[in-house]
Write a structure and sequence with these properties.
142 residues; 3 helices; Alpha-Beta Plaits; two-stranded antiparallel sheet; three-stranded antiparallel beta sheet; alpha+beta; 34% helix
C-alpha cells in the first residue's frame, strides 16, 4: 500500500492519484527524476538560445564603465548578441585614476546597427528640468 504524502490515506500500490484527496502519488525518486529532467531541459534551452558569434568584429571600444553597461543593455534590448573582453580584471584602476577600455564585439552582420546604436548612446544627452528634482531639498551651508 502507498501512503499519500498529503492526507496519509492508504492507497493501492498501483494508484497514481490518492482516492481521498486527489494528490499525485509519486515517490521521492520520481520527484527527483522530474526535477533532473526539468533542469536538463532548461540547460538545453539555454544552450540553444546562446549564440556563438561566428564572425566577431569590434563594434566599440568604450572607456567609460557606465557607458559600456548602457551600450550592452541597448544591444540586448535590440536583440544583438555580443561579447566583450570583460573579465575579473577588465576594470583596472591605473595610476592617475583611469580605466582600461572595454572592447565590445558583435557578429559581422550586426556591425552597422551596433555602431549606430553606440553613436546614439554616446550622443544621448539627458535634459533635466525642475520637475525632475521636485521633492528634493537643497543642501544649505550653515
Amino acid at each position: 500500500m502507498k501512503t499519500c504524502h498529503v492526507c496519509g490515506f492508504a492507497c493501492d500500490n498501483d494508484a497514481e492519484i490518492c482516492a481521498l484527496c486527489g494528490a499525485e502519488l509519486k515517490t521521492f525518486e520520481a520527484y527527483e527524476q522530474e526535477l533532473r529532467e526539468a533542469e536538463e531541459r532548461a540547460a538545453e534551452k539555454a544552450a540553444e538560445e546562446a549564440l556563438i558569434i561566428k564572425k566577431p568584429v569590434l563594434a566599440a571600444s568604450v572607456d567609460n564603465v557606465v557607458a559600456a553597461e548602457i551600450y550592452k543593455d541597448v544591444l540586448r534590448d535590440n536583440g544583438i548578441h555580443f561579447t566583450c573582453d570583460e573579465s575579473d580584471d577588465a576594470m583596472q584602476i591605473v595610476f592617475g585614476g583611469g580605466f582600461n577600455a572595454q572592447e565590445i564585439y558583435v557578429n559581422e552582420d550586426d556591425l552597422e546597427i551596433a555602431q549606430q546604436l553606440y553613436e546614439n548612446v554616446v550622443n544621448a544627452q539627458m535634459d533635466f528640468d525642475d520637475q525632475d528634482f521636485e521633492g528634493f531639498e537643497e543642501f544649505e551651508e550653515e
